[in-house]
């Protein structure tokens, strides 16, 4: 049954001064709120390795933020901002970012009405030579445009062109322009797979030192990839959550990671809401494969709220691993719109490291799904004890 939730019930007052506009000088200098067995406490983030239960598998999202904002100007001088959301030709992130000469993306466009039929041109320099990036509007529907990009250096990939010509997108609620420091600090230290337009911000607190401490404490780690879309900042504007359309995001989980998950069932902790959504989506891919004999790679937002399943988690994961091996598939590549909200029952994860999220957001609903009504006490505690909020803010560890 679809949750009957009024989004107004998931609101709280967030003063602007509590939003962290900039990161701390050190990534791991943030505070850590701990919610375990319904008890709230606080400590330093550097103590995370010793707070995790033994035999925990900590799962990171290794996506990397691309410089997705491209600032063009028409001949008239009008500024046109093109924000790359997702690739469409080719439709693979890896292939599109590796494309040479041209590719097409679904984009939002600032000042769209001022962009007529002409191509937009942006000169750029590479190795001392001048080149031009061109953008052609192919179609517009539902507020987004399909834009074909082309450039006159066939040796450069689109990823390289973006690195030269694009701007790293930081969250709109920071109310400031991207600064030089953001190019380093708005990436996790373990980012690898290019494709996100927003950082998996729970991971911003980790440093090589903390990662080394995890290893020394015997905490296993694994990686998934979920490319975070701009929809992560999309506010819920409907009265009830039933009316809200969840954004879709592409993710990938390798057979190696799936095998690690199987070995740690009941002891999996996700780093961030993106890793959580990815891992829970894997469950429903496995469930559909076992129950319906269908390998579905598009998980709808209401997939968790159908008939109650009675199958052991280990059976579902074992069957999924067997299917991949039998079909010589090295990784699950899929998309998910999964919306995790009360009274969701978590299947794959038993805990989460996450930041403090905006009022009336789907991210806050996910936290509420794990903590129940206690989310209000957690956020009240954080506000009363000087925790910093949102992307560059402090962190929390939630253990069921």
Summed over residues and divided by their number, the pLDDT gives a mean of 95
Tell me the Rg in angstroms.
21 Å
General shape: globular
Total helices: the number is: 10
CATH superfamily of the largest domain: QueA-like
Q: Give the end-to-end Cα distance, rounded to a whole number of Å.
A: 23 Å
Largest sheet: 10 strands, mixed
- Give the spatial strand order of the biggest sheet: 2-1-18-17-14-3-12-13-16-15
CATH architecture of the largest domain: 3-Layer(aba) Sandwich
What is the domain total for the residues? 2
CATH topology description of the largest domain: QueA-like
CATH class of the largest domain: Alpha Beta
The poorly predicted ranges are none
Task: Give the tally of β-strands.
Answer: 18
Topology:
Layout: E1 31-36, E2 39-44, H1 48-51, E3 57-61, E4 63-65, E5 69-73, E6 79-89, H2 93-97, E7 102-110, E8 120-126, E9 129-141, E10 144-151, H3 158-165, H4 182-185, E11 193-196, H5 208-216, E12 220-226, E13 249-254, H6 255-263, E14 268-271, H7 273-292, E15 298-299, H8 313-326, E16 331-336, E17 351-355, H9 362-371, H10 375-384, E18 395-399
């Amino acid at each position: 049954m679809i949750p009957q939730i009024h989004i107004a019930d998931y609101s709280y007052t967030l003063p602007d001064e509590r939003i962290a506009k900039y990161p701390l000088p050190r990534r791991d200098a943030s505070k850590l709120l701990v919610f375990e067995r319904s008890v709230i406490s606080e400590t330093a983030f550097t103590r995370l390795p010793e707070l995790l239960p033994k035999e925990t598998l900590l799962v990171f999202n290794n996506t990397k933020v691309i410089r997705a904002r491209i600032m063009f100007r028409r001949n008239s001088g009008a500024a046109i901002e093109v924000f790359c959301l997702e690739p469409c030709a080719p439709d693979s992130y890896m292939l599109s970012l590796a494309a040479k000469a041209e590719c097409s993306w679904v984009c939002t466009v600032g000042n769209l009405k001022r962009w007529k039929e002409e191509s937009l041109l942006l000169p750029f320099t590479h190795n001392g030579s001048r080149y031009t990036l061109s953008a052609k509007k192919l179609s517009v529907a539902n507020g987004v445009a399909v834009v074909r990009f082309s450039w006159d250096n066939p040796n450069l990939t689109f990823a390289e062109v973006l690195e030269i010509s694009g701007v790293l997108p930081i969250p709109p609620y920071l109310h400031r322009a991207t600064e030089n420091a953001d190019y380093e600090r708005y990436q996790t230290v373990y980012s690898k797979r290019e494709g996100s337009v927003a950082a998996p911000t729970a991971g911003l607190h980790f440093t090589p030192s903390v990662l080394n401490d995890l290893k020394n404490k015997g905490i296993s780690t694994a990686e998934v990839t979920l490319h975070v879309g701009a929809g992560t900042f999309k506010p819920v504007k409907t009265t009830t959550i039933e009316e809200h359309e969840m954004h879709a995001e592409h993710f990938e989980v390798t057979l190696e990671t799936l095998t690690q998950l199987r070995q740690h069932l009941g002891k999996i902790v996700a780093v961030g809401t993106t890793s959580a959504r990815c891992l829970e989506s894997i469950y429903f891919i496995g469930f559909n494969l076992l129950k319906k004999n269908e390998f579905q790679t598009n998980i709808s937002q209401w997939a968790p709220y159908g008939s109650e399943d009675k199958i052991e988690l280990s059976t579902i994961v074992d069957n999924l691993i067997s299917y991949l091996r039998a079909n010589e598939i090295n990784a699950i590549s899929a998309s998910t719109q999964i919306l995790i909200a009360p009274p969701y029952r978590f299947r794959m994860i038993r805990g989460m490291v996450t930041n403090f999220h905006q009022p009336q957001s789907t991210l806050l609903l996910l936290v509420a799904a794990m903590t129940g009504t206690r989310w209000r006490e957690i956020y009240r505690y954080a506000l009363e004890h000087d925790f910093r909020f949102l992307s560059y803010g402090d962190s929390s560890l939630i253990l069921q």
